[in-house]
Amino acid sequence: MESSKNYIDIGCYQLNKAENEVCGDVFFSRKMKKDDKTFAVLADGLGTGIKANIMATTAASMALNYTVDNASVKQASELIMNTFPFDLKSKKAQSTFTIINIDNNAETEVISYDCPEFLLIRGDKIINIPHIDVQIDVLKRKQELLYFKFKLEKEDRIVIFTNGVTKSGFGNANMLLGWGIEKIKSFLLKNISKNKFISSQDLSKKVTHQACSNDILKPRDDLSCAVIYFREPRKLLISTGPPFYEEEDKKLAEIVRDFKGKKIIAGGTTSQIIARELGKKIESVHSFSHLELPPVAKIEGIGMVTEGILTLGKVYEKLKNKKSTDISGEGPDVEILKNMFTSDIIEFIVGTKINTAHLNPNLPIELEVRRYIVKKIIKLLENKFFKEVHLKFI
After folding, report:
1. pTM of this prediction?
2. For 150, which of 6, 25, 244, 339 is 20 to 30 Å away at the CA?
3. Residue-averaged pLDDT of the chain
4. Local structure of 150: helix, strand or coil
């Protein structure tokens, strides 16, 4: 079930220009399982507002579609530049962009058109990568793009952002020409030194919020920062339901015991089996203020133990209604979600022994058979939150 490969953690945070309802920057990313590649693009539409958003969305969509069809980042850029609306006044395309493509060997290509330079952070240093100038003829004018090729190393981060970030604070006493690349570098290194394993989402959020603060909380331009972090995957195991055959009880307990990562047991019978097989005790540790769900317990060396079907049903409902990984509140379902959102690879091991209580027609309809609830959760985790999920029945 477990994967030993390094993981590519991608996060992006954006804020609109003050008083604008939409962002003129667009970020897309995709992990292509078939080719084992990771793709990301950040596009900055000319101007702000709806028109800029349309232009940026068009550029980002084209880059995504061409790359999915196995075009190189150079080919994708050339196709975009030759088919994209061109602003004759500024003599530039209606959207700037940075495209990143990472293959299964961590070989990385970056191509950028009229965007702030991308940053490669390795340890406590910014690594300078030499670039190749790529020139494309557009309407009989030469347009210059910067092309980079390098191999990612474990714990490397790639950081990209739009002009709104670099130019934030323009005119302030301490940054007359804007925040600028050098101050952004210092800001990034300072935050990473404080939290060596800070997630891509949290780091991109810190950069964007600082840019907003530079503009006295009223951004003068759309603000976007995206981070790609190449690291060990953070793993979570959720075991729910007893095995179909009692002879498999020991095997289940050993799988949970030997798993390298966070562990959650969802189900009273399941937790009793694992505790018995491992010679451990189940200890109650926390009772939340509301009474919708039973309290959380723990088994030494295992982690969180919760009730099963009801709790997983609540997890599914919250996942279905959430639009981001930001979460507040308390309860066993909230704790499970927090663990899911901070994990990269989530592995479910689902027992297939039927609990007749869950088939009682007098019980609420949300008490569906365990495996179907888990499948619904997995679908949301994969398609909505881009988690890598594995499922095993026992």
Report:
1. 0.80
2. 25
3. 88
4. strand
